[in-house]
Protein backbone atom coordinates (compact mmCIF):
# COMPACT_ATOMS: atom_id res chain seq x y z
CA UNK A 1 0.00 0.00 0.00
CA UNK A 2 1.72 3.17 -1.17
CA UNK A 3 1.09 6.55 0.45
CA UNK A 4 1.02 9.63 -1.74
CA UNK A 5 3.15 12.50 -0.35
CA UNK A 6 0.59 15.00 -1.63
CA UNK A 7 -1.92 13.65 0.91
CA UNK A 8 0.37 14.34 3.88
CA UNK A 9 0.40 17.75 5.54
CA UNK A 10 3.53 19.48 6.83
CA UNK A 11 2.97 18.36 10.43
CA UNK A 12 0.96 15.25 9.65
CA UNK A 13 2.01 11.63 9.43
CA UNK A 14 0.26 8.77 7.69
CA UNK A 15 -0.82 5.89 9.87
CA UNK A 16 2.21 3.61 9.95
CA UNK A 17 1.39 -0.09 10.07
CA UNK A 18 3.16 -3.31 9.17
CA UNK A 19 1.27 -3.22 5.86
CA UNK A 20 2.79 0.03 4.57
CA UNK A 21 6.07 0.03 6.50
CA UNK A 22 8.15 -0.76 3.43
CA UNK A 23 6.35 1.64 1.10
CA UNK A 24 6.66 4.88 3.08
CA UNK A 25 8.69 7.80 1.79
CA UNK A 26 10.39 8.80 5.04
CA UNK A 27 11.79 12.00 3.52
CA UNK A 28 8.26 13.44 3.78
CA UNK A 29 7.52 12.25 7.32
CA UNK A 30 8.46 13.71 10.68
CA UNK A 31 9.40 10.63 12.70
CA UNK A 32 8.26 12.31 15.92
CA UNK A 33 4.64 12.51 14.81
CA UNK A 34 3.80 8.80 15.05
CA UNK A 35 4.34 8.71 18.83
CA UNK A 36 3.97 12.42 19.65
CA UNK A 37 7.61 12.93 20.68
CA UNK A 38 7.43 16.69 20.27
CA UNK A 39 9.92 17.50 23.03
CA UNK A 40 12.58 15.85 20.85
CA UNK A 41 14.22 17.94 18.16
CA UNK A 42 13.45 16.90 14.57
CA UNK A 43 15.41 13.90 13.32
CA UNK A 44 15.44 11.37 10.50
CA UNK A 45 15.65 11.39 6.72
CA UNK A 46 13.45 14.46 6.38
CA UNK A 47 16.00 16.54 8.29
CA UNK A 48 19.12 15.23 6.50
CA UNK A 49 20.31 12.96 9.33
CA UNK A 50 22.97 10.38 8.62
CA UNK A 51 22.80 6.82 10.03
CA UNK A 52 25.16 4.79 12.16
CA UNK A 53 26.29 1.29 11.23
CA UNK A 54 23.86 -1.46 12.25
CA UNK A 55 26.61 -3.63 13.75
CA UNK A 56 27.14 -3.50 17.54
CA UNK A 57 30.22 -1.75 18.94
CA UNK A 58 30.94 -0.21 15.54
CA UNK A 59 31.53 3.45 16.26
CA UNK A 60 31.32 6.35 13.86
CA UNK A 61 33.98 9.05 14.11
CA UNK A 62 32.57 12.51 13.47
CA UNK A 63 34.90 15.38 12.55
CA UNK A 64 33.17 18.43 13.97
CA UNK A 65 35.01 21.27 12.15
CA UNK A 66 34.70 23.30 15.37
CA UNK A 67 35.98 23.05 18.92
CA UNK A 68 33.75 21.44 21.54
CA UNK A 69 34.88 22.17 25.13
CA UNK A 70 34.11 19.25 27.45
CA UNK A 71 35.28 18.64 31.00
CA UNK A 72 38.22 21.04 30.64
CA UNK A 73 39.38 19.77 27.23
CA UNK A 74 38.68 20.95 23.68
CA UNK A 75 37.71 18.35 21.07
CA UNK A 76 37.10 18.65 17.33
CA UNK A 77 35.92 15.07 16.92
CA UNK A 78 33.76 12.49 18.69
CA UNK A 79 32.80 8.82 18.41
CA UNK A 80 29.13 7.77 18.33
CA UNK A 81 28.21 4.31 19.58
CA UNK A 82 25.06 2.29 19.08
CA UNK A 83 25.25 1.40 22.78
CA UNK A 84 23.88 4.78 23.87
CA UNK A 85 26.93 6.96 24.41
CA UNK A 86 29.40 9.26 22.69
CA UNK A 87 33.12 9.14 23.46
CA UNK A 88 36.05 11.49 22.98
CA UNK A 89 38.61 8.71 23.30
CA UNK A 90 38.41 5.05 22.33
CA UNK A 91 36.69 3.01 25.07
CA UNK A 92 37.79 -0.57 25.57
CA UNK A 93 35.11 -3.21 25.35
CA UNK A 94 34.19 -5.01 28.57
CA UNK A 95 31.22 -7.04 29.68
CA UNK A 96 28.66 -5.14 31.77
CA UNK A 97 28.40 -3.86 34.41
CA UNK A 98 30.74 -0.92 33.78
CA UNK A 99 32.20 1.49 36.30
CA UNK A 100 33.35 5.10 35.80
CA UNK A 101 35.81 6.48 36.43
CA UNK A 102 37.64 3.25 35.72
CA UNK A 103 38.96 2.00 39.09
CA UNK A 104 41.88 0.33 37.26
CA UNK A 105 43.11 3.56 35.69
CA UNK A 106 45.92 4.25 34.72
CA UNK A 107 46.75 0.59 34.03
CA UNK A 108 43.47 0.36 32.07
CA UNK A 109 41.91 3.12 29.91
CA UNK A 110 39.40 5.55 31.39
CA UNK A 111 37.61 7.03 28.36
CA UNK A 112 36.14 10.50 28.17
CA UNK A 113 32.46 10.02 27.31
CA UNK A 114 28.84 11.05 27.80
CA UNK A 115 26.53 8.17 28.70
CA UNK A 116 23.07 9.08 27.44
CA UNK A 117 21.72 5.58 28.14
CA UNK A 118 24.82 3.43 28.01
CA UNK A 119 23.78 -0.21 27.73
CA UNK A 120 24.13 -3.37 25.70
CA UNK A 121 21.51 -2.70 23.04
CA UNK A 122 20.81 -3.71 19.49
CA UNK A 123 18.78 -2.89 16.41
CA UNK A 124 15.27 -4.35 16.44
CA UNK A 125 13.86 -6.09 13.36
CA UNK A 126 10.25 -6.96 12.62
CA UNK A 127 10.34 -9.56 9.90
CA UNK A 128 13.00 -8.31 7.53
CA UNK A 129 12.28 -4.63 8.31
CA UNK A 130 14.52 -2.77 10.73
CA UNK A 131 12.65 -0.35 13.00
CA UNK A 132 15.69 0.87 15.00
CA UNK A 133 18.10 3.61 13.95
CA UNK A 134 20.85 5.80 15.32
CA UNK A 135 20.58 9.19 13.62
CA UNK A 136 23.06 12.06 13.78
CA UNK A 137 23.79 15.40 12.17
CA UNK A 138 26.10 18.34 12.77
CA UNK A 139 24.30 21.70 12.78
CA UNK A 140 26.15 24.94 12.10
CA UNK A 141 25.25 28.60 11.89
CA UNK A 142 26.24 30.46 8.70
CA UNK A 143 29.53 32.25 9.31
CA UNK A 144 28.00 35.67 8.63
CA UNK A 145 25.60 35.15 11.58
CA UNK A 146 28.15 33.95 14.13
CA UNK A 147 28.68 36.62 16.78
CA UNK A 148 25.22 38.21 16.88
CA UNK A 149 23.97 37.80 20.43
CA UNK A 150 20.35 38.91 20.39
CA UNK A 151 18.13 36.37 18.66
CA UNK A 152 15.30 38.85 18.20
CA UNK A 153 17.27 41.65 16.55
CA UNK A 154 19.76 39.91 14.28
CA UNK A 155 20.40 42.46 11.52
CA UNK A 156 19.47 41.58 7.99
CA UNK A 157 22.23 40.41 5.71
CA UNK A 158 24.10 43.44 4.35
CA UNK A 159 26.55 41.68 2.06
CA UNK A 160 27.03 43.22 -1.38
CA UNK A 161 26.98 39.79 -2.96
CA UNK A 162 23.70 39.02 -4.74
CA UNK A 163 21.52 36.42 -3.06
CA UNK A 164 21.49 33.04 -4.75
CA UNK A 165 18.27 32.31 -6.59
CA UNK A 166 18.95 28.71 -7.57
CA UNK A 167 20.96 25.75 -6.28
CA UNK A 168 24.52 25.60 -7.52
CA UNK A 169 27.41 23.17 -7.42
CA UNK A 170 26.66 19.93 -5.57
CA UNK A 171 22.99 20.76 -5.13
CA UNK A 172 20.77 18.79 -7.45
CA UNK A 173 17.57 19.87 -9.13
CA UNK A 174 16.41 16.27 -8.78
CA UNK A 175 16.03 16.67 -5.00
CA UNK A 176 14.67 20.14 -4.15
CA UNK A 177 14.90 19.35 -0.42
CA UNK A 178 18.59 20.22 -0.57
CA UNK A 179 17.82 23.76 -1.73
CA UNK A 180 17.27 25.64 1.51
CA UNK A 181 17.55 29.38 2.10
CA UNK A 182 17.61 31.77 5.04
CA UNK A 183 17.15 35.52 4.52
CA UNK A 184 17.72 35.09 0.81
CA UNK A 185 20.96 33.17 1.23
CA UNK A 186 21.44 29.53 0.31
CA UNK A 187 22.23 27.23 3.24
CA UNK A 188 24.80 24.47 3.02
CA UNK A 189 22.99 21.13 3.09
CA UNK A 190 24.37 17.63 2.93
CA UNK A 191 23.60 14.33 4.60
CA UNK A 192 24.64 14.52 8.24
CA UNK A 193 25.80 18.17 8.15
CA UNK A 194 23.61 21.23 7.64
CA UNK A 195 23.47 24.96 8.20
CA UNK A 196 20.31 25.60 10.20
CA UNK A 197 20.22 28.90 12.15
CA UNK A 198 16.56 28.48 13.07
CA UNK A 199 17.22 25.13 14.76
CA UNK A 200 20.16 26.64 16.66
CA UNK A 201 17.96 29.56 17.74
CA UNK A 202 15.43 27.08 19.10
CA UNK A 203 18.14 25.23 21.04
CA UNK A 204 19.45 28.54 22.38
CA UNK A 205 16.03 29.59 23.68
CA UNK A 206 15.46 26.24 25.36
CA UNK A 207 18.83 26.43 27.13
CA UNK A 208 18.41 30.08 28.15
CA UNK A 209 15.00 29.42 29.72
CA UNK A 210 16.20 26.38 31.67
CA UNK A 211 19.66 27.31 32.94
CA UNK A 212 20.98 30.26 34.95
CA UNK A 213 23.94 32.07 33.47
CA UNK A 214 22.99 31.22 29.88
CA UNK A 215 21.17 34.44 28.93
CA UNK A 216 24.21 35.82 27.08
CA UNK A 217 25.05 32.53 25.37
CA UNK A 218 24.11 31.53 21.83
CA UNK A 219 24.52 28.16 20.11
CA UNK A 220 26.68 28.48 16.99
CA UNK A 221 27.21 24.73 16.57
CA UNK A 222 25.42 21.60 17.70
CA UNK A 223 25.69 17.83 17.41
CA UNK A 224 22.30 16.12 17.50
CA UNK A 225 22.12 12.32 17.97
CA UNK A 226 18.93 10.27 18.26
CA UNK A 227 18.72 6.62 19.26
CA UNK A 228 15.34 5.54 17.87
CA UNK A 229 13.54 2.41 19.12
CA UNK A 230 16.64 0.62 20.37
CA UNK A 231 16.11 -2.89 21.76
CA UNK A 232 17.90 -4.36 24.77
CA UNK A 233 20.89 -6.60 24.21
CA UNK A 234 19.81 -10.19 23.75
CA UNK A 235 16.26 -9.35 22.70
CA UNK A 236 14.67 -11.95 20.40
CA UNK A 237 14.00 -11.14 16.78
CA UNK A 238 10.35 -10.70 15.87
CA UNK A 239 9.59 -12.57 12.67
CA UNK A 240 5.88 -11.80 12.41
CA UNK A 241 5.34 -8.48 10.61
CA UNK A 242 1.86 -8.16 12.11
CA UNK A 243 3.45 -7.64 15.55
CA UNK A 244 4.92 -4.28 14.55
CA UNK A 245 2.62 -2.29 16.85
CA UNK A 246 3.56 -4.49 19.79
CA UNK A 247 7.27 -4.48 19.01
CA UNK A 248 7.72 -0.73 18.63
CA UNK A 249 6.27 -0.02 22.07
CA UNK A 250 8.86 -2.09 23.92
CA UNK A 251 11.89 -0.12 22.70
CA UNK A 252 13.87 2.86 24.00
CA UNK A 253 14.04 6.21 22.20
CA UNK A 254 16.21 9.06 23.44
CA UNK A 255 18.25 11.97 22.12
CA UNK A 256 21.33 14.04 22.95
CA UNK A 257 22.11 17.62 21.90
CA UNK A 258 25.61 19.02 22.40
CA UNK A 259 25.51 22.77 21.68
CA UNK A 260 28.41 25.19 21.93
CA UNK A 261 29.79 28.58 20.95
CA UNK A 262 33.31 27.10 21.27
CA UNK A 263 33.57 28.59 24.78
CA UNK A 264 30.61 27.20 26.71
CA UNK A 265 29.00 23.82 26.03
CA UNK A 266 25.57 22.63 27.09
CA UNK A 267 24.36 19.05 26.93
CA UNK A 268 20.62 18.38 26.63
CA UNK A 269 19.26 14.86 27.05
CA UNK A 270 15.72 14.17 25.81
CA UNK A 271 14.00 10.88 26.68
CA UNK A 272 10.90 9.83 24.73
CA UNK A 273 10.48 6.16 25.72
CA UNK A 274 12.39 4.09 28.28
CA UNK A 275 10.73 0.67 28.37
CA UNK A 276 13.68 -1.58 29.25
CA UNK A 277 16.43 -0.99 31.80
CA UNK A 278 18.82 -3.94 31.44
CA UNK A 279 20.31 -6.22 28.82
CA UNK A 280 20.39 -9.99 28.94
CA UNK A 281 24.13 -9.87 29.63
CA UNK A 282 23.42 -7.69 32.66
CA UNK A 283 21.11 -10.33 34.06
CA UNK A 284 17.75 -9.01 32.87
CA UNK A 285 15.05 -11.44 33.91
CA UNK A 286 12.23 -10.71 31.48
CA UNK A 287 11.95 -8.31 28.55
CA UNK A 288 14.85 -6.08 29.62
CA UNK A 289 13.87 -5.51 33.26
CA UNK A 290 15.88 -6.33 36.36
CA UNK A 291 19.57 -7.18 36.30
CA UNK A 292 22.36 -4.73 37.06
CA UNK A 293 20.87 -1.70 35.33
CA UNK A 294 22.46 -2.16 31.93
CA UNK A 295 25.00 0.60 31.86
CA UNK A 296 27.04 1.23 34.95
CA UNK A 297 27.36 0.00 38.48
CA UNK A 298 26.21 3.40 39.71
CA UNK A 299 24.35 4.97 36.84
CA UNK A 300 23.02 4.66 33.31
CA UNK A 301 23.34 8.37 32.58
CA UNK A 302 26.28 10.62 33.30
CA UNK A 303 29.43 12.43 32.25
CA UNK A 304 32.91 10.92 32.51
CA UNK A 305 35.89 13.26 32.18
CA UNK A 306 38.36 10.49 31.37
CA UNK A 307 41.84 9.71 32.67
CA UNK A 308 40.58 9.62 36.23
CA UNK A 309 39.34 13.22 36.23
CA UNK A 310 35.90 12.34 37.57
CA UNK A 311 32.39 11.14 36.84
CA UNK A 312 29.10 13.01 37.31
CA UNK A 313 25.92 10.88 37.47
CA UNK A 314 22.38 12.08 36.79
CA UNK A 315 19.26 11.09 38.78
CA UNK A 316 17.53 7.68 38.52
CA UNK A 317 20.81 5.89 38.02
CA UNK A 318 21.09 2.18 38.81
CA UNK A 319 18.02 2.31 40.99
CA UNK A 320 15.84 0.03 38.87
CA UNK A 321 13.64 2.97 37.88
CA UNK A 322 15.52 4.60 35.01
CA UNK A 323 12.20 4.72 33.12
CA UNK A 324 11.51 7.81 35.28
CA UNK A 325 13.91 9.72 33.05
CA UNK A 326 10.86 10.14 30.79
CA UNK A 327 8.42 11.10 33.54
CA UNK A 328 10.61 13.75 35.18
CA UNK A 329 13.24 16.25 34.07
CA UNK A 330 15.49 19.04 35.29
CA UNK A 331 13.71 21.58 33.06
CA UNK A 332 10.07 22.55 32.65
CA UNK A 333 9.66 19.82 30.02
CA UNK A 334 9.13 16.23 31.18
CA UNK A 335 11.87 13.97 29.86
CA UNK A 336 14.39 16.78 29.30
CA UNK A 337 17.62 17.06 31.31
CA UNK A 338 20.22 19.78 30.96
CA UNK A 339 23.78 20.43 32.13
CA UNK A 340 26.68 22.72 31.33
CA UNK A 341 29.71 20.53 30.60
CA UNK A 342 32.60 22.66 29.28
CA UNK A 343 34.77 22.99 32.42
CA UNK A 344 33.02 21.25 35.27
CA UNK A 345 29.57 19.69 35.20
CA UNK A 346 26.97 22.26 36.23
CA UNK A 347 23.57 20.64 36.68
CA UNK A 348 20.78 22.63 35.05
CA UNK A 349 17.15 23.13 35.91
CA UNK A 350 15.61 22.33 39.29
CA UNK A 351 15.10 19.41 41.64
CA UNK A 352 12.38 18.23 44.01
CA UNK A 353 14.88 17.46 46.77
CA UNK A 354 14.33 19.16 50.12
CA UNK A 355 17.91 20.51 50.35
CA UNK A 356 21.05 20.85 48.27
CA UNK A 357 23.27 23.22 46.30
CA UNK A 358 22.02 26.15 44.23
CA UNK A 359 23.43 27.60 41.01
CA UNK A 360 23.88 31.34 40.46
CA UNK A 361 23.99 33.24 37.18
CA UNK A 362 27.44 34.56 38.12
CA UNK A 363 30.10 33.40 40.55
CA UNK A 364 31.32 36.83 41.69
CA UNK A 365 29.97 40.35 42.12
CA UNK A 366 31.01 43.91 42.92
CA UNK A 367 31.13 44.98 46.56
CA UNK A 368 29.06 48.04 45.65
CA UNK A 369 26.05 45.85 44.79
CA UNK A 370 23.39 46.97 42.37
CA UNK A 371 23.29 43.73 40.37
CA UNK A 372 20.78 40.90 39.93
CA UNK A 373 21.42 37.22 40.60
CA UNK A 374 19.38 34.56 38.87
CA UNK A 375 19.25 31.45 41.03
CA UNK A 376 18.08 27.89 40.51
CA UNK A 377 18.02 24.82 42.72
CA UNK A 378 14.65 23.76 44.12
CA UNK A 379 11.63 23.58 41.84
CA UNK A 380 9.67 26.71 42.75
CA UNK A 381 5.93 26.69 43.38
CA UNK A 382 3.77 29.77 42.76
CA UNK A 383 3.07 30.25 46.49
CA UNK A 384 6.70 29.96 47.63
CA UNK A 385 8.06 33.02 49.48
CA UNK A 386 11.69 33.33 48.42
CA UNK A 387 14.48 34.94 50.40
CA UNK A 388 18.23 34.88 49.96
CA UNK A 389 20.91 35.38 52.59
CA UNK A 390 24.07 36.87 51.09
CA UNK A 391 26.48 36.79 54.02
CA UNK A 392 24.61 38.92 56.62
CA UNK A 393 22.27 40.54 54.09
CA UNK A 394 18.72 39.20 53.58
CA UNK A 395 17.12 39.84 50.18
CA UNK A 396 13.57 39.23 48.96
CA UNK A 397 13.55 37.37 45.64
CA UNK A 398 11.01 37.08 42.82
CA UNK A 399 9.94 33.81 41.23
CA UNK A 400 10.37 33.94 37.45
CA UNK A 401 9.14 30.42 36.71
CA UNK A 402 9.36 26.91 38.13
CA UNK A 403 13.10 26.75 37.49
CA UNK A 404 14.43 30.23 38.15
CA UNK A 405 14.20 33.12 40.64
CA UNK A 406 15.77 36.58 40.60
CA UNK A 407 17.35 38.34 43.56
CA UNK A 408 18.52 41.98 43.30
CA UNK A 409 21.49 42.84 45.50
CA UNK A 410 21.03 46.47 46.66
CA UNK A 411 23.72 49.12 46.63
CA UNK A 412 25.47 50.27 49.79
CA UNK A 413 24.79 46.97 51.57
CA UNK A 414 27.96 44.84 51.38
CA UNK A 415 31.24 46.04 52.83
CA UNK A 416 33.58 43.07 52.65
CA UNK A 417 35.47 41.10 50.02
CA UNK A 418 36.19 37.41 49.53
CA UNK A 419 34.02 34.29 49.65
CA UNK A 420 30.68 34.58 51.43
CA UNK A 421 27.90 32.06 52.06
CA UNK A 422 24.73 32.31 49.99
CA UNK A 423 21.59 30.57 51.24
CA UNK A 424 18.10 30.34 49.77
CA UNK A 425 14.78 29.92 51.57
CA UNK A 426 11.44 29.00 50.01
CA UNK A 427 9.43 29.42 53.24
CA UNK A 428 9.91 33.14 53.96
CA UNK A 429 13.15 32.64 55.88
CA UNK A 430 12.08 29.93 58.32
CA UNK A 431 14.81 27.66 56.98
CA UNK A 432 17.65 27.98 54.49
CA UNK A 433 18.33 24.44 53.19
CA UNK A 434 19.88 25.56 49.87
CA UNK A 435 23.36 27.00 49.69
CA UNK A 436 26.47 27.88 47.67
CA UNK A 437 29.49 30.20 47.78
CA UNK A 438 29.81 33.65 46.18
CA UNK A 439 32.89 35.83 45.73
CA UNK A 440 32.75 39.57 46.50
CA UNK A 441 35.38 41.61 44.65
CA UNK A 442 36.55 45.13 45.36
CA UNK A 443 35.19 47.81 42.98
CA UNK A 444 38.47 48.17 41.12
CA UNK A 445 38.42 44.51 40.07
CA UNK A 446 34.71 44.19 39.31
CA UNK A 447 33.32 44.19 35.81
CA UNK A 448 32.43 47.72 34.73
CA UNK A 449 28.98 47.87 33.25
CA UNK A 450 29.19 51.68 33.15
CA UNK A 451 32.25 53.11 31.38
CA UNK A 452 33.66 56.63 31.66
CA UNK A 453 35.12 57.29 28.21
CA UNK A 454 38.11 59.59 27.76
CA UNK A 455 38.69 61.26 24.38
CA UNK A 456 42.30 60.54 23.32
CA UNK A 457 42.14 63.27 20.67
CA UNK A 458 41.18 65.98 23.16
CA UNK A 459 42.93 65.86 26.57
CA UNK A 460 40.47 68.38 27.96
CA UNK A 461 37.62 65.87 27.49
CA UNK A 462 39.02 63.61 30.18
CA UNK A 463 37.23 62.54 33.36
CA UNK A 464 40.37 63.34 35.37
CA UNK A 465 40.66 66.88 33.94
CA UNK A 466 39.65 69.62 36.37
CA UNK A 467 37.53 71.59 33.86
CA UNK A 468 36.40 69.32 30.98
CA UNK A 469 34.31 70.66 28.12
CA UNK A 470 32.56 67.43 27.15
CA UNK A 471 32.33 64.00 28.82
CA UNK A 472 30.93 60.68 27.61
CA UNK A 473 29.35 57.77 29.49
CA UNK A 474 28.48 54.38 28.00
CA UNK A 475 26.66 51.44 29.57
CA UNK A 476 25.31 48.00 28.75
CA UNK A 477 21.77 49.07 27.95
CA UNK A 478 20.52 45.47 27.63
CA UNK A 479 21.13 44.93 31.35
CA UNK A 480 18.70 47.69 32.36
CA UNK A 481 15.54 46.15 30.93
CA UNK A 482 14.24 44.39 27.83
CA UNK A 483 11.77 47.25 27.24
CA UNK A 484 13.22 49.41 24.46
CA UNK A 485 11.13 52.42 25.56
CA UNK A 486 12.74 52.63 28.98
CA UNK A 487 14.07 55.95 30.26
CA UNK A 488 17.06 55.99 32.61
CA UNK A 489 18.44 58.25 35.33
CA UNK A 490 22.21 58.74 35.54
CA UNK A 491 23.30 59.61 39.07
CA UNK A 492 26.53 60.43 40.89
CA UNK A 493 27.37 58.72 44.18
CA UNK A 494 30.06 59.67 46.68
CA UNK A 495 31.95 57.27 48.95
CA UNK A 496 34.15 57.68 52.03
CA UNK A 497 35.40 55.44 54.77
CA UNK A 498 37.64 55.60 57.82
CA UNK A 499 38.40 53.40 60.80
CA UNK A 500 35.05 54.20 62.39
CA UNK A 501 32.60 53.99 59.50
CA UNK A 502 31.77 54.37 55.83
CA UNK A 503 29.18 55.95 53.58
CA UNK A 504 27.95 55.50 50.00
CA UNK A 505 25.49 58.28 49.21
CA UNK A 506 23.77 59.69 46.14
CA UNK A 507 24.88 63.29 45.77
CA UNK A 508 23.23 64.36 42.51
CA UNK A 509 21.91 63.69 39.00
CA UNK A 510 23.81 63.90 35.74
CA UNK A 511 20.70 63.23 33.61
CA UNK A 512 17.04 62.36 34.17
CA UNK A 513 14.73 60.41 31.86
CA UNK A 514 17.44 59.89 29.26
CA UNK A 515 16.68 57.30 26.53
CA UNK A 516 18.21 53.91 27.31
CA UNK A 517 20.43 53.92 24.21
CA UNK A 518 23.70 53.02 25.94
CA UNK A 519 25.54 56.35 25.65
CA UNK A 520 25.40 59.94 26.91
CA UNK A 521 27.63 62.91 26.04
CA UNK A 522 27.24 66.09 28.08
CA UNK A 523 28.98 69.30 29.07
CA UNK A 524 29.52 69.59 32.84
CA UNK A 525 29.24 73.37 32.52
CA UNK A 526 25.72 73.12 31.12
CA UNK A 527 24.22 70.61 33.55
CA UNK A 528 20.91 71.66 35.04
CA UNK A 529 21.00 72.70 38.66
CA UNK A 530 20.06 69.70 40.80
CA UNK A 531 17.88 71.05 43.57
CA UNK A 532 18.01 67.67 45.31
CA UNK A 533 21.80 67.43 45.12
CA UNK A 534 24.30 67.96 47.89
CA UNK A 535 26.15 71.18 47.10
CA UNK A 536 28.78 70.51 49.77
CA UNK A 537 29.49 66.93 48.72
CA UNK A 538 32.92 67.89 47.39
CA UNK A 539 33.99 68.69 50.94
CA UNK A 540 33.36 65.15 52.22
CA UNK A 541 33.80 62.73 49.30
CA UNK A 542 37.04 62.08 47.45
CA UNK A 543 35.75 59.25 45.23
CA UNK A 544 32.57 57.65 44.02
CA UNK A 545 30.69 55.92 41.23
CA UNK A 546 28.32 56.71 38.39
CA UNK A 547 25.06 54.75 38.37
CA UNK A 548 22.64 54.17 35.48
CA UNK A 549 19.20 52.91 36.50
CA UNK A 550 15.64 52.81 35.25
CA UNK A 551 14.13 56.26 35.68
CA UNK A 552 12.04 56.71 38.83
CA UNK A 553 9.55 58.83 36.90
CA UNK A 554 9.29 56.14 34.20
CA UNK A 555 8.63 53.48 36.85
CA UNK A 556 5.95 55.65 38.48
CA UNK A 557 4.21 56.15 35.14
CA UNK A 558 4.04 52.36 34.75
CA UNK A 559 2.82 51.84 38.31
CA UNK A 560 5.95 49.87 39.25
CA UNK A 561 6.82 52.09 42.21
TrEMBL record:
Query: So which residues are the signal peptide here?
Result: none
Q: Name one Pfam family in it.
A: NIDO
User: InterPro entries in the record, alphabetically?
Assistant: Epithelial_Barrier/Signaling (IPR051495), NIDO_dom (IPR003886)
* GO biological process annotation, one example: cell-matrix adhesion
Q: Where are the transmembrane segments?
A: none
Which superkingdom heads the taxonomic lineage of this protein's source? Eukaryota
Q: What keywords sit in the KW lines? A: Disulfide bond
Residue intervals of the NIDO domain: 176-344
**Cross-referenced PANTHER family, in alphabetical order?**
MUCIN 4-RELATED, MUCIN-4
List the protein's name: NIDO domain-containing protein
